[in-house]
């Protein structure tokens, strides 16, 4: 299943395979995508895929009067993941997720990501079940009215590099409905990508950019809306010889933290 270009999943070329009712399966192309803050190859699109496919594994378990919202996302990246992606530029990253444990007021899904048959990451997404919204955003079935989207990752995410006078790395989130989810907020995968990008940039701001993301852990506090004041920022917590960590935060247009997380990287 493909999505229109003014849909958040369509923006990133995500395709969903619904043939197995017991698994949630989708893929995302990553060729040529780089961190807009550093110009380096990035694993950020994996967060977008994880939020979608593992979130879908939780979503299909909802009752007729229920909806799901992500509450936690944890991504663990295998050593050599970027090299495996670079070695197969014409192959998308595949994500396969399944439910873990019983469904309660929350649900947990486990996801494995691979490229060209090589496992590159595992992840989990925990979702809350909430009353189904009375209104949901709808998208057209085709791309007739979709805006032209640039090929850069920043264009697809509707973000811009922000100015900062300190050690933090900042991306500004524009108000673009094409990156909003069904309840009218920035898609959780897009905002999780923003956190990975700023976290990685904060740890690679020096002349020797060698730290590679090993894990990203995200907590979703509230819906995020783009526009004036909405941004992603990261501040290094520790810079060691072989490992480093950064605290990351996404702030909505209301000035409140919408997501917080921690990124750990290795070299």
Automatic annotation (TrEMBL):
InterPro entries the UniProt entry points to: HotDog_dom_sf, PAAI_dom, Thioestr_dom
Alphabetically ordered keywords of this record: Hydrolase
GO molecular function: acyl-CoA hydrolase activity
Chain ranges of the Thioesterase domain: 184-256
One Pfam family recorded for the sequence: 4HBT
Superkingdom per UniProt: Bacteria
Name of this protein: Phenylacetic acid degradation protein
Organism name: Mycolicibacterium obuense
